[in-house]
Amino acid sequence: MGEQDVREQSNAEELRVFLRHLLKDVRAFEQMLEEERFETGVRRIGAEQELFLVDQLWRPAPIATEVLEAVDDPHFTTELARFNLEFNLDPHVFGGSCLRDMEWQLGELLGKAREAAQKCGGDVVLTGILPTLKKTDLELINMTPNPRYYALNDAMNRLRGGAYEFYLQGLDELQLHHDSILLEAANTSFQVHFQVSPDEFARLYNAAQAVAGPLLSSTANSPMLFGKRLWAETRIGLFQQSIDTRRSTPHLREQTPRVSFGRQWIKSSALEIFQEDITRFRALLSTEIEDDPFEELQKGRAPSLKALRLHNSTVYRWNRVCYGISDGLPHIRIENRLLPSGPTTRDEMANAAFWFGLISGVLERYGDIAEHMPFDDARSNFLAAARHGIDAQLTWCGRDPAPADRLILDEFLPLAREGLETAGLDAENIEFYLGVIEERVSSRRTGAQWLLQSMASLANQGSLAERLSAVTAATAARQREGNPVSTWELARLEEGAGWKQSYATVEHCMDTDIVTVNEYEPVDLVAKMMVWKNIRHVMVEDAENRLVGLVSQRKLLNLVGTYHPEERDDPMPVSEIMQSDPVTVTPETPTVDAIELMRTNGWACMPVVKEDHLVGVLTESQLMFIAGELLEQKLRE
């Protein structure tokens, strides 16, 4: 859950003091390894479930505080955004019926979350990225009022020195900037933990890195953001960019992002990771630290290593090492952050079983996988799986690249089965959960594929907002039924919230494919653009995409008979005929308010701006098209 007791803003002296504590914690951790202070001889598993809170229209609902009060359970805690929630499962000894027991608790806690959300007028959805999420949902007003989150946002903004830039390309393209870390809240995951002994950590951690590709290929569930079709698991690229504090430099310089897959295999212990991360990443937060880890060790107690844990919580490896204490005994865990939330709790537990089995199987069959494949192959597999999901081409132990589905069925499922059997898990549970993975891969119906296929089947129905509402509602409905995603029928438009929510604000109705000119360009260009694109208005913006004016077809027609290009030494610039400082609306403006403005003033066009930047346009023709669709629907009814 992360260290919550942090200073909202740390000065240089406080950070130096914190770094001294951090270095002391590292030395204490090293001593604990040398003196074999960690719990051994047992493996435990656990998980953290993140989820979205939605309203009755399947839009993000900022009700986390109210839901937490209603649920009243210590397993639950806040997340970065007020429309996210997290709950933590109890640890289970790895063996016997642990998978079935974990799924039972997962379902019980999810049921509590759903019941509490419904009391607050909402619901819950398990999905990597909520399809109905809008960029306007990611304003700071929706950040959870927790000192840690504000402090983290401020620290990263200072380190970044400007807006965060995002660029992702799949079938569609996303390019935007954002002024806070809140875009991270677009992602939710199902994070699983695996407790290991120090002497086996390096080999098991390397195994976790090696199987990241096939695991992600079979579990992808986040193919869209803001209605754009991007990566099969868009979370991977989005999360890295959402808290990327690196700045560009005047010359080539290698810089590691705070979210990373890693740079190399681990050679001996978890200490290598802590040392690497402290070396490469500045401390963002500080906290009050009173206890001395060496004094605690002398007394035979496990030190909290508070500084080390806080710094580690601000470095986001996809496979992260965690230090913890249970019943007074310190332990080391590998935290898997790759897996998306959803599509169902059964799918999630199958994903967890696949991962537990894979890393155990790799250890049994290969020992240290670092001796059998280059690290670059593991990283390449991971990136290919994030981009292409089940369609990825993967490499394994020196073999030629092969389709992910074939490798999973032929190589990785048997390997996972071997690992779970060696660990002593119930045979019936093994076959049940790995059977979910096998059916999903054989049918090529991952959560990502289901969502894309559903959107494709709805392509000629309703608006984009209606389609996104429909797939979100369908996801929630099928989750309640509990059957794995491989058995889901595609979403239907009538499952969504209907047309009302689809046109509630200007953001839902505006056109973002805008034709613009610069005020210094010739009027002749505007005239040609109107003919070529069959439009009646052209927006005028400066080099920074700030709206400075508007040219209408009526204005051009008024020039006929008075404008003689041959009489001028240079063409007439747009600035001479444009309407300067036109009235604008924002994406959040209610559509009815915008319509009233246009009707009252006789306007056929309204530019849409955000922080002075042109982001869209609302036109009379668009509103007529929407009205026609709604009239047709009503007449059919």
TrEMBL record:
UniProt xrefs under InterPro entries: CBS_dom (IPR000644), CBS_dom_sf (IPR046342), GCL_type2/YbdK_subfam (IPR050141), GCS2 (IPR006336), Gln_synth/guanido_kin_cat_dom (IPR014746)
GO MF terms held by the record: ligase activity, forming carbon-nitrogen bonds
Domain of life: Bacteria
Regions that span the bilayer: none
Annotated CBS domain residues: 510-566, 578-635
Key word Cell membrane present: no
Keyword terms of this UniProt record: CBS domain
Name of the protein described by the UniProt record: CBS domain-containing protein
Annotated organism of origin: Candidatus Sulfomarinibacter kjeldsenii
